[in-house]
Amino acid sequence: MSIMRRIQLYLDDDLWETLHVRAHASGSTISELVRDAERERYLGSLETRNKAMQAVVGLLKNRREIGDSTAHVRSLRRGIRLNRFG
Asked: Is the separation of the CB atoms in 33 and 19 below 8 Å?
């Protein structure tokens, strides 16, 4: 589970009332409704995210110019480890 961070929001009366009614009707909290709405708006639905992840699985599998993926990744990393230590 990820770390939750506390924030403060100012809501106009119409939005507050709507969220209050929906939270009561669904048996959830206003905070849960806001988090769900933010996830949907900024992260996309879980289904959309899963489709995006599935679309990249094996993307480079048949790239002949790369060759062996392990060797390719190692060649990209070559020499940078020592640079990290100054």
From this structure: yes
